[in-house]
Amino acid sequence: MNTINIGVVGYGYWGPNLVRSFAEVPGSQVVAVSDFSIERLAKVQSRYPAIKVTTNAQDLFADPEIDAIAIATPVSTHFDLALSALQAGKHVLVEKPMTVSSEQAKILIEEAKQRNLVLMVDHTFVYTGAVRKMHELVATKAVGDIYYYDSVRVNLGLFQHDVNVIWDLAVHDLSIMDYVLPSKPYAVSATGMSHVPGEPENIAYLTLFFENNLIAHLHVNWLAPVKVRRTLLGGSQKMISYDDLEPSEKIKVYDKGITVNGSPENVYQMLVGYRTGDMWSPKLELTEALQTEAVHFIQCIQQGDRPITDGEAGLRVVRILEAATESMKKQGALIELDKAKVAA
Amino acid sequence: MNTINIGVVGYGYWGPNLVRSFAEVPGSQVVAVSDFSIERLAKVQSRYPAIKVTTNAQDLFADPEIDAIAIATPVSTHFDLALSALQAGKHVLVEKPMTVSSEQAKILIEEAKQRNLVLMVDHTFVYTGAVRKMHELVATKAVGDIYYYDSVRVNLGLFQHDVNVIWDLAVHDLSIMDYVLPSKPYAVSATGMSHVPGEPENIAYLTLFFENNLIAHLHVNWLAPVKVRRTLLGGSQKMISYDDLEPSEKIKVYDKGITVNGSPENVYQMLVGYRTGDMWSPKLELTEALQTEAVHFIQCIQQGDRPITDGEAGLRVVRILEAATESMKKQGALIELDKAKVAA
Amino acid sequence: MNTINIGVVGYGYWGPNLVRSFAEVPGSQVVAVSDFSIERLAKVQSRYPAIKVTTNAQDLFADPEIDAIAIATPVSTHFDLALSALQAGKHVLVEKPMTVSSEQAKILIEEAKQRNLVLMVDHTFVYTGAVRKMHELVATKAVGDIYYYDSVRVNLGLFQHDVNVIWDLAVHDLSIMDYVLPSKPYAVSATGMSHVPGEPENIAYLTLFFENNLIAHLHVNWLAPVKVRRTLLGGSQKMISYDDLEPSEKIKVYDKGITVNGSPENVYQMLVGYRTGDMWSPKLELTEALQTEAVHFIQCIQQGDRPITDGEAGLRVVRILEAATESMKKQGALIELDKAKVAA
Amino acid sequence: MNTINIGVVGYGYWGPNLVRSFAEVPGSQVVAVSDFSIERLAKVQSRYPAIKVTTNAQDLFADPEIDAIAIATPVSTHFDLALSALQAGKHVLVEKPMTVSSEQAKILIEEAKQRNLVLMVDHTFVYTGAVRKMHELVATKAVGDIYYYDSVRVNLGLFQHDVNVIWDLAVHDLSIMDYVLPSKPYAVSATGMSHVPGEPENIAYLTLFFENNLIAHLHVNWLAPVKVRRTLLGGSQKMISYDDLEPSEKIKVYDKGITVNGSPENVYQMLVGYRTGDMWSPKLELTEALQTEAVHFIQCIQQGDRPITDGEAGLRVVRILEAATESMKKQGALIELDKAKVAA
């Protein structure tokens, strides 16, 4: 296989991780990095003397040596950069959230499709051992029918000025759910509040409705005294607790639940039984998520595979972020996901 | 002061606790207990030979020796029993939720007012050391302006057939909030789901809106693999974590938060600073809540005081339960609390 | 089977639990209780009108209706009471520690043996679901060779005036070890300290030496700011954590450990490999320990079985308590268990 | 002040941290690094092109540009390297444990004293915010009289071939105690066990005796299923819990304890009262320990100050390690620290 040459746009918070990952995994090398900041580019040079640097991202798109572009810039710039890269014939890996609107996401998907290029969204959590184990437990029916997905992601975090807390934090949970759950939500109801005048909401609650009595709920908060990263997933056969702050036992599988017995004569009065059994915490794959993800991106390019977190996944997440923001403005009003402004 | 003679209606799950409490605290004695079950009444007699027993609650209302009635029966019977007791001139302590509708609650309040009788609702948590400490920290402005109140009350719990999980579990949080928070909510948005055909919702999420950017949220669930009883209360000066499962340090006060600085020219771009300081877990009053509550009920009767958890508090909680149930049916539609059917 | 009639001596802290247990389990009934305190005996009568009460334990021993005596008095009185009971032909269940010396324990064992009576020591923890599960995991070789047993039992506890903290707290761990571990210790080294002038040691550390490189260690402390009840058991195949304060997952089994590879040429430089796998928390039997124990005592009497926690087990524990106290006085000097003054 | 030029010997596990720290703090710069491995030296060069590298540590000692040497090599080499450095007139910072014997430590102390050079031992934990806070709480008498110091430092850790677990793990606790406690121990009793044939002990327990009824105990273990880093410090006024694995509240101060009342007539029967109050978790200094330590080393050189963790502190720790190892061989036999073979 040919080595895939990567250009990285943006060397702020996340960019250095992308550079390191593509530099380390087999099958790829980073050949150029662009950033507005001369200072940051100096860091690139001192650490990776062989990598070309530039303040102009267009230099990367124009570089015939480069096969793929990884974009790690603020979300408002994702669309223009990704579109230019695709139009220049480059495969694209773009930070989450994919774009600021589902319209933009659709255009990128179409562009990549037309040009037969890989378009992947950096939904990093999907590539962790914990989330992959949850996916496996759901996909193999070990959990049974899924009843609910409930996640809390709160701490005293950096207030963003350009996006509300949903776009900053819930995006993680939505990308995980998109991968783990067996179906997609049809509507969302969200509530939230801003505690700094003129600033976006810093606390928010989302309920997502699915067919088959599956319900999901997210609590995100930049203003909590304690850090919590905990997901509960309830099923008819098993229930899962996923605590990302646990150093080793992140996933716990409980053999707990209810058994429902109804008789034909009396469907309205079901007999609910309770079941409690062992708890089991499976060993998780320890490979760093970003490495797994980089390998996957390279492979999709080389073999023409569709990424797990492709443009469609990115679009589905953005569509929910949009709808949730709209619902939040209307204090919980139900927004159907197919009828959201996406459609336009 | 004269000893207050108590009659207890209902000797199922909670009744024995009421009997024990009124038997132990000074100023009261239990003179009679009624229950449908002969078996339960036999337990009363073996443990308290001096207490009269009867299968007919009306015997208690007719008994001139009895000053006050404590009602610990299913919620659907509260209204009739409490109304009869009041009409018979007895003071009343009634289990939570007070009634099945706010209309009923209003009638009881009016009846008690007309007859100048004490009407108290058994919002037990309000009388715990932990909740009283939270109340104190809020009332003395130690917490500053309140930003949010967030509570999780989940476990693998008994599925009820007659009420949804909100009426069973959220009633605790609503009674705590009614006591602790400085204002009352103006609207509610709730979502939830039933996972047993024909049965009420077993998982639910409530958002409560208040004036002044205060938001509250409750998560209640009968089908969780782990037991959680945790409340976060965020304020401008301090943030509180209240974990009812902690054996000793239930309340933790964090000197954490944000500081907001805006300039006249740029009100739209506030500067948010972050503050982290000591954590402090105050010693809590250890008296059993039910004892404190029993003493308070006796005192209100003897001195003509208004109970902390009076009929109005009971009504406010019932009104929210009604509105939340209505909102849940409409998948999160905002229900204003003043315009709820209560009004009728 | 005939019902076994029980007499209980001592109705202080533990006695009421014994009375309740023997009253509830099938096959036995409590016919009499003795205690020095008239007040306590009044409590017996109000709760159990059918039980005879007396201030003189000898009345129980002389009562031909009584088959077995349960002794729940201070340890200094165990020997005289148990001996009298045995001499009167009664089976005996005695609180832990069995006696104040191993000499006394031996006399009781001999007396019971001569008279063919059941002599059982109330090592309650042995009858809990958690300890029985540990026993099973060790006995079935699931844990492999046992490397160490480490227990911490500390909290702010009641200072005793007559016995040091080893006799009060370590007795629990020693009785658990006696049941769970596959062999018996040959020597003990203990250290400790008293922080109240003239009073026995309130903090102590015991190391127990076994054959085959098994080592055990206990930390007991009446003066700790937090309550800890945690045992680690390390084996060649699995490692166990037993946390008695966990509400449900008390036992956790870790598939962790080392693998040792040595070659004949280089036995002095072993290759140590590390293994980490799943963690598993088995569901535990929830029957109350004291009920299981009462049933076992009844069965031993009826069927002539030897109790799991027989007089020999009680003696082994007392022998270690003696030796540890002696070692503690000598600041850790090794005391061999066979040569301890027991021998006299 | 002149900039202090540092030479670092050893670029394995810890050396890179020393290089980074001295490169970052003001007042010092790293001018040369030595290591046996060409590969490691290449890493130095790629990261710090200005730093000279050599495979021969003697080049650093001979370099007139270098003021001070930091030694991060295996403990068996500390003595020779440190002695050569001192003899070459360089100030020395040496990894812990300082040397393999107290004899060696004494020689280094004497050499540094004769030449008026700074000799500091890298007891890193002493420079953490948590340990400094404990020191402050003890030094200001907030804790009152110290009753005990108890530490557990266990996990599934790397088995060492050249030193036992005491030299690897207990060295941390001993260096912390040397700084925090108000007095020095006079004797040690230690027990332990090896579970790999021919290898040093992998589990060990140390009791340290002090004057005034202070007792300390350490539990260190390379073969534990869970990671624990917890210290309890009991005093007459307050009790401290120090949990190094807590992300933020590492230090908790409990207003708990006993009060002792005795009368002249009855000194043998003291009245023990119990006190429980608030818990308080102070905010800790967040500066990285190694940075604080590097600044301190520079300052000691520039101002002729005596380091907090000077050669004498290193010697005291080594002396205890020696004595504990000796006691462990004798299964807990008490080894007095002044009479240890050190004296020879």
From TrEMBL, chains A, B, C, D:
Pfam families: GFO_IDH_MocA (PF01408), GFO_IDH_MocA_C3 (PF22725). GO terms for molecular function: nucleotide binding. Gene3D superfamilies: Dihydrodipicolinate Reductase, domain 2, NAD(P)-binding Rossmann-like Domain. Residues 4-123 form the Gfo/Idh/MocA-like oxidoreductase N-terminal domain. Residues 131-239 form the GFO/IDH/MocA-like oxidoreductase domain. This is Oxidoreductase. It comes from Aliterella atlantica CENA595.
